[in-house]
Design brief:
Pfam family, one: NADHdh
Radius of gyration: 19 Å
Helix content: 55-70%
Membrane topology: Multi-pass membrane protein
Distance between the termini: 39 Å
Mean pLDDT: 90
Organism: Denitrobacterium detoxificans
Number of strands: 0
Subcellular location: Membrane
GO cellular component, one term: plasma membrane
């Protein structure tokens, strides 16, 4: 079997495994997040498996859609999110992973536009602005990864004698900043696509989505959370698979910090979000790339 076919087969197997494992981990993280948020707000909060029961209830509802393509777009968005996770966790091409997860976001946006709801269209426009805000920094992260490892393959990080954070601190700072947008947390959840129900345009992107379609959206968010935390952990692996434990610890610390930020900062308008995200990308990511170019 040729190396290309082997790589494709490896990615497909990893995608299937990721499609099974990631929703479970994402569901547990979502349930734990609700509990932690409730404690921060002085409430008891729901049970750990409440997100699972919510999605199960949605799956049991009668299928209802405003058109025939909404569900197709959401299924494509979920599929590409799982494929991106398979590419990343199989040690595949990081740049390809970035492009695929962006494609997933675009299908999610198109699904909202297809409903022709004014609320959904506003949410879709804001979701597009979010993508415009974080995408430059995500690309800078991939460039820094290549400069440090001399490869876009994620598995190359395990060949290093020091973690990427030692050479890519600027890229990590930039990723930490835009992670709030990627995880749909305040102050940057301007499209109302997070799990909170206290925003100002009903439910934004998902206004017209219900039943199994909305369940797929929730599962997609779980899958994305696991993938993005994987990006955080990538900065802390080196030398061998044992360091994966270190990566998991740092990823969970960052995840807890995002929950704290979500519960302590009010949402901002899209103009500051776009300006701050691009400024951080140009300063933190740009300087990091420039320094590595001369090392």
């Amino acid at each position: 079997m040729t190396p290309i076919l082997m790589a494709i087969l490896k990615t497909l197997i990893a995608t299937v495994i990721f499609a099974v494992v990631a929703p479970v981990i994402g569901c547990l993280l979502a349930g734990l997040e609700r509990i932690i948020s409730a404690r921060m707000q002085g409430r008891v909060g729901p049970k750990l498996l409440q997100p699972y029961w919510d999605v199960r209830k949605l799956l049991e509802k009668e299928r209802a859609s405003v058109n025939g393509v909404e569900g197709v777009y959401i299924a494509a968005a979920l599929g590409f999110a799982m494929l991106a996770g398979g590419i990343f966790f199989s040690g595949g091409n990081l740049l390809l992973c970035v492009f695929v997860i962006t494609l997933s976001s675009l299908f999610f946006i198109i699904a909202a536009y297809s409903t022709r709801s004014p609320y959904a269209e506003i949410g879709a426009a804001r979701e597009t602005i979010q993508v415009m805000s974080y995408e430059p920094m995500v690309l800078f992260m991939a460039i820094v990864f290549y400069q440090v490892t001399h490869s876009f393959d994620v598995v190359a990080a395990f060949r290093l004698t020091h973690p990427i954070i030692c050479f890519g601190l600027g890229a990590f700072i930039g990723l930490a900043f835009i992670l709030t947008i990627k995880l749909r947390k305040s102050p940057f959840d301007i499209s109302d696509s997070g799990h909170h129900g206290h925003q100002d345009i009903v439910k934004g992107v998902t206004t017209e989505m219900s039943g199994p379609t909305l369940a797929k959206v929730e599962i997609m968010h779980w899958v994305e959370d696991v993938l993005f935390l994987g990006w955080v952990g990538m900065f802390f692996v080196w030398g061998g698979p044992v360091t994966i434990i270190v990566a998991i610890v740092f990823a969970l610390v960052m995840w807890f910090l995002e929950i704290w930020i979500d519960n302590n900062f009010a949402r901002v308008k899209w103009q500051p979000m776009l300006k701050w995200a691009w400024a951080v990308a140009l300063v933190a990511g740009g300087i990091n790339i420039a320094v590595l170019a001369f090392i």
